[in-house]
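Structure record:
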Amino acid sequence: MTPAGHPPVLASKIGVLLVNLGTPDAADARAVKRYLREFLSDRRVVEIPQLLWQPILRGIILNTRPKKSAHAYQQVWSDAGSPLAAITAAQAAALRHAFGDGVIVDWAMRYGNPAIADRLAALKAAGCQRILIAPLYPQYCAATTATANDKAFAALGAMRWQPAVRTLPPYHDDPAYIAALAASVEQGLAALDFVPDVVLASFHGMPQRTLELGDPYHCHCVKTARLLGEALGRELTITFQSRFGRAKWLEPATDRVLDALPGEGRRKVAIVAPGFSADCLETLEELAIRGRDSFITAGGTHFAYLPCLNASERGVAMLRTILSRELAGWVDVA
């Protein structure tokens, strides 16, 4: 028995916190501006000295970009809100009972809500003495995986009684991930009413400088595309999307490739986005809407965007597999 006045002692549990990039709270300029301020102030994302960057961010970008970005979000927003938030919530819900009654599965966003610090505090308050932090980025990048872990560690630094923690490593070449991707792409291609001349594997872009500084992201993307192509029995064309600013970014650029393909006689294209665990603005608006428009305008005749694994049965099974490995020794998962 605990002595009188002793704080409540909860039964020990284990937490799993799924983490994705983030989203504004609404598809309007004010919410987008708040989101972009947090996102673009992250030193992992923009590696320009803050004395130089902040005047540009606050004086130009935050006064011009939010309205345009809000319009883009409005194209994909639903009654459930942001696609990224809705899908990540669905992934967490689908995994809720995957690891037994003693494991709580929750989700958070690196930027925006629900915040990582808030959900870690909630897991700790629920009795989680061990927590697996799981950034859902198949390919490691300092601007994605590392900053999610940074935020979690900062929250832990404010706790008197910290839980034990593990972090999910990148899974860009994991057989379970490649197999799930391949099956999903095969299903998507089989459902088309045309045979693509080319299948693009479009990954989120990063500045070229990140590769030169030793970030493994580019190598991880290339390996994912190679393994996926081998599993499909066809070569994939690797591209990188979402360029921002004047710096040189990883190439070839998705938008430029889409513009050029029809002129090369390749007028039927399918696109898959293997770097995203859930569909979001960059896949649903940038690829499926703007990408289609630019490809057709350039002379293309057939275009298809194949969705991410999302909270599909196949995608959830893959997540269960890779998360189970990281929970080994904490829980027994059949």
